[in-house]
Amino acid sequence: MLDAELTPVQRFVLITLMIKATPLPNTYFTNVAHIGLKADKRRELQVLGLIKVTERPLVLELTERGWGQAISELGGEVPPRAGSAGGALYVALEFLRGLIDHLGVAPSELFTLRVRSTGNAPAPADFEASIRKAYGEVARAGEYVSLAKVRKALQTDIDSTLARLNRESDVHLIPNSQQGDLTDADRSAAIKIGNQDRHLIAIGS
User: What global pTM score does this model have?
Assistant: First the structure.
């Protein structure tokens, strides 16, 4: 499709953006997908008109041409130097191509479909109810208590809600790879999931 030959990493980035079907922060590729796209290779994708990039934070998005290139990877040949993981990826992409043809849908329709979690976790209560609940955990009715204690109790509810939301397909909680940019407030607000502090959140289909 292109005159320029893309590297396997560049192809993996386009494929990831296609499958997620949403703009993704650069930290998602670094910390979640473990795809290391160097700055010069990112600029090449921009020059080729395959992605749009916004700054602060760095976010990548497929252009219309980028969608076309990513779709062409479905059922495509394994690129040279793709490695064993790349080979497995292209086997999965070949399967997806067959699934798309069988369903008779456009690839964009398939990838924008998101099946939401139907777990047993209750829907979040309104915030006033959360504050009343937090107060009840640290004090008796009518008793004066410091707001710091209420805030601490609220933090437990917030963290558990964020951890639950992280299992939703349209919610992404990731670390900020630019550790030098973190403020004390950023570090204090982070939530630990697994063995990582997550500082950034994105919500979207």
Answer: 0.56
